[in-house]
Amino acid sequence: MKKGQRLFQELLVDLRKLYYLGSTLQILAWDQEVKMPKKGGKLRSETIECLSGILHEKFTTSSFGTRLRKIKKFSKQQLNDEQQAIVREVLHDYHKAKKEPKAFVELFAKTASQAQNTWREAKQKSDFPLFQPYLTKIVKLARKRANYLGYRTSPYEALLHLFEPALTLTEITALLEELKAFLIPFLKILQRSPVNPNPQRLFGNFPIEKQEKLNQYVAQRIGFDFEAGRLDISEHPFTSGLHPDDVRFTTRYDKEDVLHTLIPTIHEAGHGLYEQGLLAKNFGTPLGEALSIAMHEAQSRLWENIIGRSKIFWQFFYPRLQKIFPKPFRSIPLDDFYAALNTVKASLIRVAADEVTYNLHIILRFEIEKELMEGALAVSNLPRVWNERMKSYLGVRVPDNAHGVLQDIHWSFGSIGYFPSYALGNIYAAQLYHQAQKDLPNLENDFRRGHFERFLAWQRKHIHRHGRRYRSTELIQAVTGEKISAKYFIDYLRTKYSELYKL
Ligand code: ZN
């Protein structure tokens, strides 16, 4: 065996060991949200902190770095394309991990943990001044983090790259600006429509056990493999992929609103399908990992919205839903159900928003994050600016900070730069789905009959199985023959909602 190849094989063995440790951490985090008794919290944070430290240390030792650089030298002659991609991505992670000093990572984690506790209390009391000093600290640390990570034009870009490394701040801004320029007037047009669906009609009394069965059924039908995964309950739905053969997702239940559970379940199942679609042979390497948070959201939002809120999807599932819950669904025709499920209504809370207004919630956060990071906006002015923009973009008045600037958990744990992934995910999803429809004739007929295999196989072939082999920009260009564009998402929204609101 040639030297480069031998070194590469040794690297794989070491990487795998690190991944065993990483997946142990993941299961501890999963257990914390799903099973752990309340009093176990202190031990669990200490355990996670300690193991994360060990993982970080092992990954950033200089001998590991030296070996990586040696392999890189042989890379072009002795390694195949996939192996070269692995070396490229591991080096990327290694440099990133080396950039932030250990003491800084610990300080950030500690501050975020305190900020999170205070945020909970502040949200409960709708008391922004209580949270303000913590958020000020978080913003300062996030700026410091950006300095460590490095950036060209704006510190915000360094943070955005944690969630989507393939796009520059300028490119993300252009995509979101285009979307915003469409959404604000479009929302006003929808609001003037005389069509007035009634989502209240979908409420009822839905026993949890029946809902659990329904969730399992729908997730399985769209392709989630329950032999290689499970569905549990947690306060906030999430997905954890340890390995393609062990993917866990969660949901939460609402006795009166079955869709409040089912729709997020489809979203998380969409994340789960991505994780199950990674190749087991790549476990332990970056090719066994999802491409980016934005691409992950593209998968989940595609299933949740483009498919899960479509009429063709419900043509198959609605009769089943009516059978399980005759009240109230027997008396609601499919068309009315579909309209109610897709009601567009400007509202205060992001997570409860419809497909159209959701993106304005994200754009507002994107702009605010950018201004905070660049020092153009002071934390103390945040509530005022938030409320002004909610009024100007969505036309809603924010009654208190709990329903405004304090509603999301993200900033309290230091995740500045995450929000745009949701809107980018929508943009990617629409563009990819547009291509899938071209590649797979009569796809809609499959869905009408409850068959999702052909589409899932398409996703697997073009997206899931590659892991981090390509960047999002390359992948979308290769699959669709075009650059990432907001056009497809805008067209999708315009067509769907013009029909629903009879424009
Ligand atoms: Zn998600």
From TrEMBL:
Top-level enzyme category: hydrolase
Key words, A-Z: Carboxypeptidase, Hydrolase, Metal-binding, Metalloprotease, Protease, Zinc
Record text on cofactor binding: Binds 1 zinc ion per subunit.
Reactions performed catalytically: Release of a C-terminal amino acid with broad specificity, except for -Pro
Residues involved in Zn(2+) binding: 267, 271, 297
Matches recorded under Pfam families: Peptidase_M32
Domain of life according to the entry: Bacteria
Official protein name in the record: Metal-dependent carboxypeptidase
Lineage of the organism: Bacteria, Candidatus Kerfeldiibacteriota
